[in-house]
Amino acid sequence: MRLALYEPDIPQNTGTLLRTAACLGLAVDLIEPAGFAVTDRNLRRAGLDYLDAAVLTRHSGWTAFDAARRAEGRRLILLTTAAAEPYLDFAFRPDDVILVGRESAGVPERVHASADARLIVPMRPGLRSLNVAIAATFVLGEALRQTAGFPPLVPAHGPGDPR
Ligand SMILES: C[S@@+](CC[C@H](N)C(=O)[O-])C[C@H]1O[C@@H](n2cnc3c(N)ncnc32)[C@H](O)[C@@H]1O
């Protein structure tokens, strides 16, 4: 399972997602341009002291990312508020790429059309969207549950250890 971020706008969300992916053992594809300079300094300021544990691949743009994804034979699973299929009804595969859109505008039509599946986290009517990191976390949790992809549990912390 991989997580892909389409032209993210907000470094704090990218930091949250990189940290989440690092903790879950997921690689991240960052599709540029981003709305901020993608530097270690900016990502660390976004709360990511987990950067060393993150597996991050930067792509110069959509075309480069999509070519790499297709070459590896991975399905593209887009999370979008424009979907009709709830994510809980979908059968995930271990090598799927889960793609989230940019905070300001989601993804353009050609990206929408390239996806093998488009999934929604159901919401109450009249409300626009979830925070991108929250939406991704719902779906990654289900995808990892279905594919038995969570990291094995080992006793890592004592009660007084830093988290
Ligand atoms: C803040 S939302 C973008 C809203 C944007 N106005 C749009 O039209 O897509 C950022 C990203 O979070 C994800 N997202 C947010 N809420 C979602 C939901 N309920 N179901 C699926 N994805 C969601 C999508 O990937 C979306 O592109």
Automatic annotation (TrEMBL):
Parts forming coiled coils: none
Subcellular location: Cytoplasm
Example GO BP: wobble position ribose methylation
Molecular function per GO: RNA binding; tRNA (5-carboxymethylaminomethyluridine(34)-2'-O)-methyltransferase activity; tRNA (cytidine(34)-2'-O)-methyltransferase activity
Stated role: Methylates the ribose at the nucleotide 34 wobble position in the two leucyl isoacceptors tRNA(Leu)(CmAA) and tRNA(Leu)(cmnm5UmAA). Catalyzes the methyl transfer from S-adenosyl-L-methionine to the 2'-OH of the wobble nucleotide.
UniProt subunit comment: Homodimer.
Family: Belongs to the class IV-like SAM-binding methyltransferase superfamily. RNA methyltransferase TrmH family. TrmL subfamily.
Descriptive protein name: tRNA (cytidine(34)-2'-O)-methyltransferase
Gene name for this UniProt entry: trmL
